[in-house]
Amino acid sequence: MANTLTGLLPDMYEALDVISREMTGFIPAVSRNSNVERAAIGQNVLVPVTNSAASADNTPGVTAPNTGDAVVDNVQVAITKSKHVPVRWNGEETKGLMNAGTFSTIQADRFYQAMRTLVNEIENDLWLEAYKNASRAYGTAGTTPFGTAADMSDFAGVLRILEENGAPKTDLQLVLGHAAIGNLRGKQSGLFKVNEAGSSDMLRNGMTNRIMGMAIRHSDPISLVTKGSGAGYLTNGAAAAGSTGIAIDTGTGTILAGDIITLNGDTNKYVVNSALAGGVTSIGKPGLLLAAADGAALTVGNSYTPNVAFARSAIVLATRAPAKPEGGDAADDTTIITDPVTGLSFEIAVYRQFLQVVYHVRLAWGYRAIKSEHIALLAG
Fold first, then answer.
1. What architecture (CATH level 2) is domain 231-303?
2. Could you give the percent of the chain with pLDDT greater than 90?
């Protein structure tokens, strides 16, 4: 059978020219894991995560010390979604549009919308995963970052959290929402001055490459998140520095994943990774920086917009074509189109039906934040 998709390739690549301009900051910023890509839907792949090690005194002796064992933790990552967006035409529709000379344009637009749908869902998934699994936060809820001219405190504040947590400096990312990017462009005039910024990127393109070692990216789904209703909570027993599980009692209402909490006597803003359940709420590693006394007041911060700073290796994304049964399915033909900006590869399949044809634009994906220590929030 002839390759029935060859004639459509110009339409598909025309669609990619459009989708490449979407605001997708997380997809190109996270790491990819080929081991996860090989897994079936729902099949877990264990990603090893090593813990910190302790030193020991050097004491001369006949034999080397019987030490050095360690517990290597793991995080489970799985392909969790497999979706397609259909593009269907019947014969009469095709004939009418071809007679009008608009079929190719409309076909390209429909492929564009199909790919846009999948890209936006993946981008949103990564944003939700990132901010709900962060360690700590910097900034003021309800106040958009970078609002004070010539003030780099927001960059320095969120970077400090990553540095304190030991995040690698080689591939840091800062993904901002529309409001933060707007302030960056409108308020931080120093970034436009080539003699000060060292580059004309912000002036010419409205975007700069790196600031304080962080690659600056722009993401569409970043928006206001509503806090839990928790109020009046107190710690139930003392919690040591480094604790991630905080037992609480008294109080009422919910504490949700992604909420920013503070404890009496501690100015650090901790991010809740697991919602309050069974009298315990969990914060991101490395946990409490200061010990909390029994009966310390726990306060849920206000609703906020979470911009996210992280090391690339802290968040894993795996994508692949949906799995087909042995021997294939009823598709007449398939092809792969790769988006050069996000790096996502879509499978396009064609299914011929009675007096009509349907194209499936499809992808399977999974994602996971595997190291909360290397994720921090810039709240706005």
1. Beta Barrel (2.40)
2. 53
